[in-house]
Amino acid sequence: MQLPRSYRLISAVLVFICILTGIAWSSGAFRHHVRAFVEKFQGHTGRNAYALLLTSSENERYFQSTRVMLYQLLHSDFAGDIPVLVLVTKDVAQKDRARLKKDGAHVVPIEKIEAAEWMDAAESRWQDLLTKLRIFEQVEYDKICYLDTDILIVKNMDGVFDDPATEIQSTLDKGENVEAAFPEHYMFAARTDSWDYEHSSENPNYFNGGFLVFKPSQAMFNYYMELAKTQDLFDWGMMEQSLLNYAHRQGGSMPWQQMRKEWITDHPTEDDYNKGLKAFHDKFWDWQPAQSQFLHDMYMAREKEMEDYWKNKG
């Protein structure tokens, strides 16, 4: 017996909806919206954010790379809808702050953390980088992914907040004697530092400070500040990266967790791109012979894409 025409029409519509749902579910952004709705319904806010740092308007190149990062995370074809914080010091001009806000950033004014005279940064431009620790004070968020601004992103990164390494950990009792109390729980995840373009010198116990996922905590910030008063605990050459690697060393009370390799690498190569990684950390605008010409060209094209996007916006 043939079904009535109205039943056949309804069945066709339902099949079409199922097909569209299946296609949409393959999109990371769609899954993110569904997850956010479910968490809200269950009473979990799940407030996550990306965070960038800009300490001065003196170097136009870093301001421009911050804008490229905002475009990649908020406006590109693979962008999600997770907010992006840009922490700025008093040395960032008001006109630059206004431009970053127009680009979609949540601009967060912070006070600079001055390095002690005895801290001997390997490069003078790193002298302000203890200020990066201010990101741990943004306690209104559950998880923050910090990124240096010299990163090329080629795929949606929002899944990083669900990486198994970003689960909350219980602080271990290693009998360490420090003035500031450890938080009872913490979360600190990172990726191994590659050191060179051959990736031949990776130390599995040392991470790169340019890509971190962590749970903000005032207690953790206070602990870092106590460490920053101590001169001889470790080599301060890499500034905040040295401090964080000591605070979260393997064998310590709050060891860092290794995130999946798919997210990012520093000293990237075209081979890394072909392996499907999502982001690449290098100063692509300052091309050197050892760098990937392929990724350099891709980054410069992304920068022009950003400029054209805002030019067309008017």
From TrEMBL:
A Gene Ontology molecular function term of the record: glycosyltransferase activity
> Which Pfam families is this protein grouped with?
Glyco_transf_8
Alphabetical list of InterPro entries matching this protein: Glyco_trans_8, GNT1/Glycosyltrans_8, Nucleotide-diphossugar_trans
Q: Which domain of life is it from?
A: Eukaryota
Which PANTHER family does UniProt cross-reference here? Answer: GLYCOGENIN SUBFAMILY MEMBER
**Protein name listed in UniProt:** Nucleotide-diphospho-sugar transferase domain-containing protein
Q: What species does this protein belong to?
A: Peltaster fructicola
